[in-house]
Each structure stands twice: as C-alpha cells, then as structure tokens.
Amino acid sequence: MIDLAKRTIDQEIELLREIAVFSKRIENASPSERVMLSDGINSLREIMKKTSDRIIEILNGISISGNKKEREIAESKIAPENSMPKFRERDKYIAELEIDENILNRLKGKKIVAEEAKEIGFRKARGYLRYANKFFLRSASRLIKKGYFSSLPTDIRRSNLDMLFESYVAMMLFSSVISFFLGIVIAMFLIFSGLSGILTAILVPMILPIVVFIALYYYPGAERNSIEKRINEELPFAVIHMNSVSGSGITPNEIFKIIALSREYPFLRKEIRKVLNQTNIYGYDLVSALNNVAKNTSSQSLSELFTGISTTISSGGSLSSFFEKRAESLLNNYRLEKQKAIKVAETSMDIYISVVIAAPMILMLMFVMISVSGIQIGFTPYQLTFITIGGVALINVLFLGYLQTRRAGY
Fold this sequence. Notes:
The protein has 410 residues and is mostly helical. Among the domains are: 1-99; 128-227; 342-406. It contains 16 helices and no strands. It starts with a helix and ends with a helix.
C-alpha cells in the first residue's frame, strides 16, 4: 500500500508539472492556442482531483491497524488505480469530465450506432465507378503492368481516396471517353448556333478529353497537399492533447484511441485510425504500425512524430517528455507559418488595391478621354465598359480562388 501511495503521489507531481508548463505557455499564446491550453489545464485539474481522492483513501487504509484480515478488508475498500466511479456517481462523473456517452460506449466495446461507424468499412464500387470498372478495368490493368502511372499509387494512398489504384485509372479513362462525346455535342452546338467556326469547334472534342485526363491525373497530388496542410495545422494542438493525457500514465494505445475518437482533429484522426487498424485488425505491434503509417502519410511532420514515438517506445524513454518537446517545436513552426500567412495576406491586399481598384478607374478615365476625343479604336464605349467590368469580375474570381488556396484552417 505504501508503494501504491508513492506511485500515486509521483503521478500527481507529474500532473502539477504539466499544469505549470501549460500555464507558462498560455501567457504568450494566440487566442486559438489559449483555448486548447485551457482545455488541457482543466482536464489535468480534473484528473488531479480524482488522484487526490485516491491518495486520501490509500492513507486512510494505511492508518488502520488490526489483524491481517482487517487490513485485507481495508485494502479491498481502496479503489484500484484504473477503477471507475460507482454507478450512482456515474452521471456526475461524466458531467465533471465532459465525456461524451458514445466515447464511453466505444471504449467499453459496446455496439452503438454513431456517425463515425458509417465511415469505417469496405464498400463496393457503385454508380459511376462501377461502370468505369466494367468497361475499362482490364485496360487500366494492362497500362499499369506496362509501367504507366508509376507515381499515382502513392498519391492515391496519401490522399485517402476510397478506391483502388486500378479503379481510379479506369475512372480516368472512362471520364476521358465521356468528355470526348460531350465535346462533340458542344462542337455541334457551336457550329449550328453560329457562335464559332468549324475549325474552332472541332478543337473542343480534341482538347476537352486531354484536359479532363490531366486534371484527374493531378487531382490526388493536389488533394494530398491539401490534407498535408490541414494535418500540419491540427498537429500542434493534438500533440498538446497527447502530452496532457500521457501525464496520467495511460498506455500509448489509449492515447491514440482518445485522439481518434475526438472530433477536434478531423484530418489527423484518419491517420491515427490507420495505426489502430493495424494493431487491432492486422495484429501488428504499435511500433511496427507507427513505422508503416509513417511511410504512407501525406504529412512529413506527422511522419516524423510517428517515427519519434516508435523510437521512444522501443528505447523505453518517457513519452510525456517527448510530447512536451515536440509540442513546443510544432507550436513554434505553427507561429512561423501564421506569420508568413499574414505577410502574404498583406502583399495580396496591396496587389488587390492596385489591380482591381486603381487600374479599372484609370482605364475608365482613358475610355472617357478616347470617346470625347473621337479616336476610333474598334470598340464602342459600351463595349469597352462591358469588357472592363467583365475583366474586374474575372480578376476577383481568380483572386478569391488564390486566397482560398492560401487560407489558414484556424
């Protein structure tokens, strides 16, 4: 019992250390970081309350004197380290820790109906993909065996597309053929309506399939880059969460379960689920699962994190210390990225003011002067005004698209 008391007190000291570290960080943190750090501090405080109650129970058991039978009865009254509260205190306990009912049921292994359950599992190809497999799967397999599309499988895996490599290539071929016939329809419409000449209209069914094929070929890579950016934005706060949870002494598998069940990290938890699937379904140990997922994840930072965790577990190091140092490093990188984003936004604002606001005003003044002076340039004033307005609208759309690609997730 004395050893149990020592271990519990050491655990409480570690929790105090974590609270002190988070309290120092919260002073210089951004608003979004403060929310995450405050949640971590509150969670640690709740764990400390339970730990303190357990220490009191242990000390009361030590102070009881009597024969061996009485001491055994006293020890049996002390809750073990991983015990849950009594059933009548369960609702109060859940309310204090703000634990979701579905999470408790998942951790207990009960079968529940939740939204996350619909995301997991193997699905048969249906709809558009089924027809693509029906007509072009053999052709796609022959092209793959000849060595074409060698860079595509890695991008498909890292972009988390729910389809096989052969099926995606079949869909590329099927979409190109459909776009060819669609181009013929568009060309006939342009010719019969008189909107375009025959030679120009003929180019449509030739160019459209090429554009569709190239777009589908590069889509997994673009999706992979987008996922990498979102994972890197979620990673610092997830590591802080892991750090706060690891201080309570739970196993690494349980840490990953908590992150995988959290809705605060929608992109990161998909990668965490890959680790859990390898350990729970395929029977890999945690170190092997981490190394396997690290090779196929889209984020380099997450790959380094998984490799570091596996090395720490293999060498018997402290996960809490590892998470603390890695969280500090990731937060510094996060701040630098935000500073770069702010500078890019400032530069974009200057460009927008110059191109979209000042330039059209100057052009309109030039058009007015040209129309007053009577110089013929081949366009009427109304046509020039329409061209200017259309150009401004197009620039706005392109600028909004650029900002959308550069925007931060938080």
